[in-house]
Design a protein that fits this description.
InterPro entries: DUF1638. It is globular, with a radius of gyration of 18 Å. It is built from 11 helices and 7 strands.
């Protein structure tokens, strides 16, 4: 059986002659940056605003522009299925994305994500909480009753996900809980699943380059 190089070594060998960049959502920017440093991955990053999730046109434009900035490089896209045209955009740019429905699934793993989603969770991360008022006003307006009706239709509680890189967003979370009239739960989350997702995406990218 031939000797198999690790993903880390394969990436370092590739990056000795070329550039590989990760372009995508900045909602887990601190976590992704930590994992890149931890693993010493020679991977450049270009993060886009997390608020683009509520604006399909804006997301598509920003992703096209972001990928164009790295047109002379190989790229990996850090997004889930966050846009109905995501696969088309990736194919046009000859790139691939991290596996998973969204960043929450990448962080929790599919099993835990689906279990909480089925039970009615609305997931809240540090970045999303800090920008909540601006994002909600832009999306739903300022009528609290309408906002509550929208969230109560699908959700039973707020689940705040706290990673080792999260700041203290407890006051923001309490504000959001009161606004939506939904109970608040907290979960401390490791980066194990996210690390595996990133490593798998890098491996798939290197495999695709080797096959060319």
């Amino acid at each position: 059986m031939p000797f198999a190089l690790s993903v880390d070594l394969r990436l370092k060998l590739y990056m000795s002659t070329s550039t590989l960049s990760l372009v995508g959502c900045g909602i887990l920017q601190k976590e992704v940056g930590y994992l890149i440093a931890k693993n010493n991955w020679p991977l450049a990053t270009d993060f886009l605003p997390a608020s683009l999730h509520i604006d399909f046109k804006g997301l598509a434009g920003a992703l096209h522009t972001g990928l164009a900035r790295h047109a002379d490089e190989q790229t990996i896209v850090f997004y889930g299925a966050c846009h109905p045209g995501m696969d088309t955009m990736l194919n046009e740019a000859r790139t691939l994305r991290t596996a998973g429905q969204n960043c929450i699934e990448m962080l929790l793993g599919a099993e835990e994500f689906n279990r909480e989603l089925t039970q009615g969770a609305y997931f809240l991360l540090d970045d999303w909480a800090r920008n909540w008022d601006a994002v909600i006003a832009k999306t739903f307006g300022s009528n609290i009753d309408v906002i509550r009706d929208i969230f109560h239709d699908q959700h039973r509680y707020l689940l705040c996900l706290r990673t080792p890189q999260s700041g203290d967003f407890s006051q923001k979370a309490l504000h959001i809980s009161a606004m939506l009239d939904l109970p608040l739960q907290w979960r401390d989350v490791s980066l194990d699943h996210l690390e595996n997702v990133l490593q798998a995406a890098i491996s798939r990218k290197l495999d695709s380059l080797h096959a060319q």
